[in-house]
User: Fold these one by one.
Assistant:
Number 1:
Amino acid sequence: RKVLTMRIVMVGAGYVGLVSGTCLADFGHEVVCVDKEEEKIAKLRLGAVPIYEPGLGELLLANQASGRLSFSTSLKDAVEGADAVFIAVGTPSLAEVGSADMRYVYDAARAIAEVIEGFTVVVIKSTVPVGSGDEVEKILAARLPKDRFAVVSNPEFLREGAAIEDFKHPDRVIVGVEDDRGRSVMHAIYRPIERNAGPILYTTRRSAEMIKYAANVFLAMKVTFINEIADLCEQVDADVLDVSRGIGLDDRIGAKFLNPGPGFGGSCFPKDTLALTKLAIEAKAPIRLVETLVDVNEKRKIAMARKIERACGGSVAGKRIAVLGLTYKPKTDDMRDAPSLVIVPELQAAGAHIVAYDPEGVKAARALLSGVEFADNAYACLAGADAAVVITEWDEFRALDLQKVKAALGKPVVIDLRNIYPIKTMRALGFRYVCVGRGL
Ligand code: UGA
């Protein structure tokens, strides 16, 4: 099937920009990723990927070699002849306010307005509050006649650790577009996945912006719900794993995102739940359900530290606590809003000495956690510790030899905040094993 090649510019070579740019090149399009950071672009030109994402390195190299994917610091050079310019820059939470900081998106829009030539579609991929597309349109209209551009909202639904698969085989692609020319360019861009993925859903721009927040917040709500059900299970001697399975088999509920843990983290859920509450308050339609879940999730991380103390006989003062896993989830080196960033300092404040190991997160963790001793591998981390705490469910922790774990630990205490070990085996081996929501 013939692919109509589009010329695409990706502004922002961060996580979303790199994954999206690389996958679009792999679809057969010509893609230039642009970023202001010269050092980052220089490294990317040599094929060095600055983030950890399974499969990204290989895909990037292959598309670079084919000439479809390139990197530049010059937006002006890159946009020459481009059909679409994607904005994939960050929208961090504004300190103390909580709403999304739109500075980088609007800066990018102004820079784009300066340099685009023929008709160009400006696609917003960054997660932005409802109405941001209108603002970007105003910025462009201040410099350009209206028939020279179209502004489209095309939110991303990539999970870190599975981003390539998510981009290539999405459940759906959301395109918020207000005019036919914008729509036909987006159709050409996503045509290669039409057959082997979910539908492309065309909506208004504002609806597309809302879909992104509503989707993430719904998932965060599912996680928070099962976390609270887990706490209740502990009190009433029920097993949350059975409860998850039992409710998840109902199609209306669905089995995914029902694994209890130490609270959600990462670069999206914490930021997006907060941003939606602000947006709703400003729109005079406050969503109390979401306000509550933000609060519940914050408190949960602190509650996890107290749970660890209880499992250690009431206090961790003077104890050596081995922490397995620091990143907010496995298969990423991302430490943003990771529960470990609250749990570890709480334990330190209670007098614990923390020794930690993470397969990918140590580099980022060193800058964010002080007074922590970092081990080179899991067994070294466990050696002589008074208790082990699993915060992130990396596969290599599931695969640990539990006899060796017991032999390594000073005291056979395991607090498993991700339920990765079988209760019966742990108890048969003589561990004091504390997990989440399994009050059996
Ligand atoms: C999330 C969404 O899943 C993506 O669809 C979305 O595109 C992305 O945000 C984004 O807005 O860019 P991500 O942050 O990579 O992706 O991570 P998730 O896999 O969604 O996990 C988020 C948090 O929830 C993690 O801390 C994870 O440990 C936790 N979680 C998830 C649970 O505790 N239990 C679960 O059952 C599922």
Number 2:
Amino acid sequence: QRPQMEEEGAPALRPAACRAKGGAPGFKVAILGAAGGIGQPLSMLLKMNPLVSVLHLYDVVNTPGVTADVSHMDTGAVVRGFLGAQQLDAALTGMDLVIIPAGLPRKPGMTRDDLFNKNAAIVRILCEGVARCCPDAIVNLISNPVNSTVPIAAEVFKKAGTYNPKRLLGVTTLDVVRANTFVAEVLGVNPRDVSVPVVGGHAGVTILPLLSQVTPPSSFTQEEIKYLTNRIQNGGTEVVEAKAGAGSATLSMAFAAAKFCDACLRAMRGEGGIVECSYIASQVTELPFFATKVRLGRGGAEEILPLGPLNEFERVGLEAAKKELSESIQKGIAFVNK
Ligand code: NAD
Ligand code: LMR
């Protein structure tokens, strides 16, 4: 199949077999919002992933150009573009994993919650499509405010009768990526050698880095703990302000989303021991959704890992996080049921 539009005079192509490298099964992945600031670099990174055999790029604008561009990369994944609401179902049918970075980004002075009115409706429409066309797909939800959009997606899937909490994963990987970077800077080591669990949610005080559980085990002064916690919680705002009206994190987010998607695909292929932080339906606290480490498997989040021992600073942070999270979750649930 031609990646996108038939060129006049082009010969019929031979059927494309599964093109994943190394004999491993390839997965079909769709990106909804593929022409955006995150969507474009994420499309490129997934075209480079040997576990992706088919890559569907959907947006309400500009997908023909992005698709033509990415499809010329000489890697295995077959790329197809889909433009506008009438092509949503075709974009989603048969997909194993759907990544959703569709929606407005912040400008300076805005909170993520200020995006709710626009993005809630976008996420609802797209998740209705997932329920209709690929109800068994694993969903990686990026659109903000994540603390509310994941509950919105869950309600949409419940209404459609397709909800499986293991398959709905809010992407908080960028918080972990930032935490690893900033902690490595303070420790003077390579960020690749550092792993910081970040729990709670994905906005301000709901982003709770557990510096007492950093690996390799490390100790920090009180001053370092305050500096690191504040920088990790406000990493998104740091980028929004630096971009000065031109949007929020896109490149580091595409990197984080590609990392998280790759972890999901490796787990779906049967690789064991894959643990990532994600915002998901959870019983770790009294809240219905919470980000913690989860063990990924063939069916999504197979196991939600406990919070582990917290120090006093983290316990205070947890209470503040839960208060704000609770409101954001209720707002999302109410949006679908009003
Ligand atoms: P962007 O404006 O550059 O791109 C968004 C894309 O979504 C656009 O191409 C737009 O056409 C598309 N879109 C809008 N409505 C759509 C619909 N109904 N169906 C399909 N596509 C639609 O924004 P961006 O910088 O790529 O950010 C996207 C979202 O990701 C924002 O909500 C942002 O806040 C969020 N974000 C989340 C994280 C995270 O850590 N979870 C990090 C960064 C950004
Ligand atoms: C981020 O953390 O970079 C994203 O949530 C985008 C934002 O608005 O900060």
